[in-house]
Amino acid sequence: xxxxxxxxxxxxxxxxxxxxxxxxxxxxxxxxxxxxxxxxxxxxxxxxxxxxxxxxxxxxxxxxxxxxxxxxxxxxxxxxxxxxxxxxxxxxxxxxxxxxxxxxxxxxxxxxxxxxxxxxxxxxxxxxxxxxxxxxxxxxxx
Length: 142
What we know:
- By secondary structure, this protein is of the alpha/beta class.
- It is built from four helices and seven strands.
- It is globular.
């Protein structure tokens, strides 16, 4: 069963996603990122300039097949566009269809009240289906 983790009180979702992806890449695991097109485009841009010392290899799911096969981090609007990976990072509002084929799902939740309300709905969805949920409150770490 997919492990579900919520990261709450994320000041900047794109910055946090970049840090997660850098860490996942350093650990050697493939990662899928799913979210709205505009968010993914902004993340794509941010990943190119996130760190002067680290290269975080990534591509959009629309990239040619050879690139998709050799790139450890893939960004897509839907899970079905992602190759099977161990970790899925979710940047959208609704429960991502097909998340259950991933070993781990990481939900990023900002301090925005609308974003928090969407997260509560997703939390209920996972809890009602018996998923064990881990909670990481970033406000507690500051």
